[in-house]
Amino acid sequence: MSRPKRLCEARTPCRRAYRRAAALVVAIDVRPNDPDGVKFCHAAPREEEVPITTKIAILDDWQDVARSSADWSKLAARADLVFFAEAFATEDEAAVALADFDILLTMRERTAFPETLLFRLPKLRMISVTGASNALLDVTACTRRSITVCNTAGAPGAPFATAELALGLLIAAARAIPTADRTMRAGGFQRGVPVGLGLAGKILGIVGLGRLGARMARYAAALDMNVIAWSPNLTETKAREAGARLVSKSNLIASSDAISVHMVLSPRTRGIIGAEDVGRMKQGAILINTSRAL
């Protein structure tokens, strides 16, 4: 089976991902002396042949990130743009709302596009996805429908943004920052706010010691935390290189004062931390999940 057609990989998730829709609509040719180095891996009609009725949907722009991260004016002059700021409640709702669109620009893994939905969108020709992959998009069904699929790499200025978020959540939970903030805004001061947990000397268990998990281990070391780690294929050498100590899953669950999950979602990792595991955690332990596993 042939692989789905893809455009050349972009670099900035929002700003450059949405340029690909312009590529399909405007039909920029490959030119060796193009100062922007624009090269596309598909054949498209020339600009004058593109119908003005091309419709493009920008989905799940909950935080107005897509609208504010790109200049849409040139694309808007050649196509009808519609921004969707709210999620679809059901597949039926999505099928009705998107039935007339030719191109969908999607935020990574917010709206699911299974085969059943893709075959209810007869005009769809292209889906552009922020991020390197999308577990909620049936790429095989896109191939059968001859739908062009393209994606972006991570933002070059924030390659470890998810690990930074995990660290922020850990500190916020340990020091009860959200509770203290709400109390202060309500006119209170300290009353009802937990003292908080100092992280130095505490044990951080990392589930999944890949690129982001290893970065989280470095952050924890800067806080003088003791780092242990586990994943199905983790070796002692790799754990040691990341500044962590390899332990069993049961040991990690029972020993950690905080656990941070950094696993890619797959059939093997779905439910990797279950109710029984949570029940075996220390009283008052913190569980941080910034991955798509669980």
Automatic annotation (TrEMBL):
The keyword Oxidoreductase applies. Belongs to the D-isomer specific 2-hydroxyacid dehydrogenase family. The keyword Ribosomal protein does not apply. Pfam families: 2-Hacid_dh_C. This is D-isomer specific 2-hydroxyacid dehydrogenase-like protein. One of its GO terms (molecular function) is oxidoreductase activity, acting on the CH-OH group of donors, NAD or NADP as acceptor. Residues 167-293 form the D-isomer specific 2-hydroxyacid dehydrogenase NAD-binding domain. Keywords: NAD, Oxidoreductase. InterPro entries: D-2-hydroxyacid_DH (IPR050857), D-isomer_DH_CS1 (IPR029752), D-isomer_DH_NAD-bd (IPR006140), NAD(P)-bd_dom_sf (IPR036291).
